[in-house]
Write the structure tokens for this entry.
Amino acid sequence: MKSMNAHSYELTKNHEGFVSIWVGIVPLAEIPEEYFMKRYDDGTEVDDDDEDLEPNFIDDFSVLYDEDRVDYNCCVEEFVSVERLIGECSHSTSYLKPACESAKKLGLETTQNVILLHDFNYALNPLHLKKNKYMHFIGSFPFDSDAEIAFQSGAK
């Protein structure tokens, strides 16, 4: 496991009112299940209290976050619009438009998965990784904690 340096953690931790968003850039089937889940080497799930093992997403992007502030949304069957997957996440009416505009500028209009970290401004880290072989960081956006979800889950 890569070690986190304290500088990157301090730059990226808990920034209330911001959401940082990553969009999947490969088919979901190509992303190892353990990339997003805490697992032991034998495949069994890790107890939530075990802080020593972290998913590769955390290592790749050098982030630490509160799991209660994460939205992960996916469509296993097919690629769908980035707008749909982000729009099904918490408070999305407050950041959906700028997030989709950012994704479109990066050529990301369809995906099978997104991950959103609320109260977290990854863009403030000048050393942040924008993209790896699975995910592309599209930006950090202000959000309103009183805002509604733009689309109900499963809406097309």
Summary: The radius of gyration is 15 Å.
